[in-house]
Specification:
By secondary structure, the protein is of the alpha+beta class. Helices cover 35% and strands 20% of the residues. β4, α3 and β5 form a beta-alpha-beta unit. It starts with a strand and ends in a 17-residue tail after the last helix.
Length: 163
């Protein structure tokens, strides 16, 4: 297994991994709000990669025998001038995607990918790393806890109208 910087020739592999993750998220969504739109496969990877490009980010791919088996994307967004009014604003990196193909999970690949991204953020002088994890993704939450991450904010949801 090797970890490389993203290359365009792997775009469809990235699309497939993103689709695999979104289908998993849909399957565990107890609110039934997530979906896989018919344009997801075509557009989502391009949007994610553009965000990486525009925010001093990186996309790393894990390869085995020339096949993409995992990926991580991270960005370093700039703060807005008003962010400093109520926050110390240490430089932070944000992991926007971390995906390991289903058949390669629980073999340490996610650990290698997160270590690679944390090293990049450290080299860019980030002080913190943030990641949003879907509340119903218990294996993901456990993985991040195991890696020293903790909750700082909680997004709450309440349905107030019937369909």
């Amino acid at each position: 297994m090797e970890i490389i910087d993203y290359e365009d020739k792997y775009l469809n592999d990235v699309r497939n991994l993103l689709l695999e993750l979104e289908e998993y998220i849909v399957s565990i969504d107890k609110d039934y709000l997530d979906q896989v739109h018919e344009e997801y496969w075509e557009k989502m990877a391009l949007a994610d990669l553009e965000e990486v490009h525009n925010n001093d980010g990186k996309c790393y791919l894990a390869l085995e025998n020339g096949k993409v088996i995992g990926l991580i994307m991270g960005i370093i967004p700039e703060y807005d001038n008003n962010d400093y009014l109520d926050y110390k604003c240490p430089k932070r990196g944000i992991i926007t995607e971390l995906i390991v193909a289903n058949e390669f999970r629980e073999k340490g690949l996610g650990q290698h990918l997160i270590n690679k991204m944390e090293l990049y953020f450290t080299e860019k002088e980030c002080k913190y790393v943030l990641i949003d994890v879907f509340a119903y993704n218990i294996p993901g939450i456990n993985f991040y806890h195991k890696n020293g991450y903790h909750s700082r904010m909680h997004t709450m949801i309440k349905k107030i109208a019937s369909d």
